[in-house]
């Protein structure tokens, strides 16, 4: 399954079970926005990341963007405490993580906390934890400040979005102890 198909499955589940949340999501990023982001970051986006952003760039509207917060996004999606990043939030977090030598810490090239080839696409509000896509091969990993970075947690963004769709399906079936759909929204307890 492609990233476009797996993301469409996620959006279909939201549209069906959380139509108010679905209606809040913004539209796609333009090719011009993506090219400008690549230029500012100094790295090409992986094809899956580009495809996903061209379907939904989950940046908040300008009036809701908070400059005092490291990352801004739509709260509670895909889970409680984290959210998918739009182009602007992605760039901001990437700029905070990127280093002049290409990885951090500089004395651990084979086991770094961060590499410049990793572009974050999901984060908590403080930028302390989240998921990234490796532009070299499209694998999805995760980071947590103060903990180990996990590379290759998912083989692709499509595989990751399939896991999100499975979670939403469990929630819709009433099989989740921590979340439900209520009044057209995804609700976490």
Your description of this structure?
The protein has 189 residues and is α+β, with helices and mostly antiparallel strands. Helices cover 35% and strands 21% of the residues. It is built from six helices and ten strands; from the N terminus they run H-H-H-H-E-E-H-E-E-E-E-E-E-H-E-E. A six-stranded antiparallel sheet has the order 1-2-5-6-7-8. Helix 1 (3-17) runs parallel beside helix 6 (157-172) and helix 3 runs parallel beside helix 5. The longest helix is centred in the last third of the chain and has 16 residues, at 157-172. The protein starts with a helix and ends with a strand. The mean pLDDT is 84.
Structural topology:
Elements: H1 3-17, H2 19-24, H3 31-41, H4 47-53, E1 78-79, E2 82-84, H5 87-97, E3 103-104, E4 114-115, E5 118-123, E6 129-134, E7 140-144, E8 150-154, H6 157-172, E9 179-182, E10 185-188
Helix pairs in contact: 1-6, 3-5
């Amino acid at each position: 399954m492609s990233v476009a198909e797996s993301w469409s499955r996620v959006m279909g589940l939201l549209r069906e079970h959380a139509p108010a949340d679905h209606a809040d999501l913004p539209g796609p990023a333009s090719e011009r926005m993506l090219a400008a982001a690549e230029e500012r970051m100094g790295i090409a986006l992986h094809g899956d990341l580009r495809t996903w952003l061209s379907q939904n760039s989950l940046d908040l509207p300008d009036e809701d963007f908070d400059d005092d917060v490291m990352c801004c996004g739509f709260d509670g999606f895909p889970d409680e405490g984290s959210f998918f990043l739009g182009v602007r939030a992605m760039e901001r977090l990437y700029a905070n993580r990127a280093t002049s030598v290409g990885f951090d810490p500089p004395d651990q090239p084979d086991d770094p906390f961060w590499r410049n080839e990793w572009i974050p696409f999901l984060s908590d509000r403080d930028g302390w934890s989240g998921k990234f896509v490796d532009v070299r091969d499209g694998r999805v990993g995760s980071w947590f400040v103060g903990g180990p970075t996990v590379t290759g947690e998912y083989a692709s963004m499509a595989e990751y979005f399939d896991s999100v769709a499975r979670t939403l399906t469990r929630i819709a079936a009433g099989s989740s102890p921590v979340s439900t759909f209520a009044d057209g929204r995804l609700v976490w307890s």
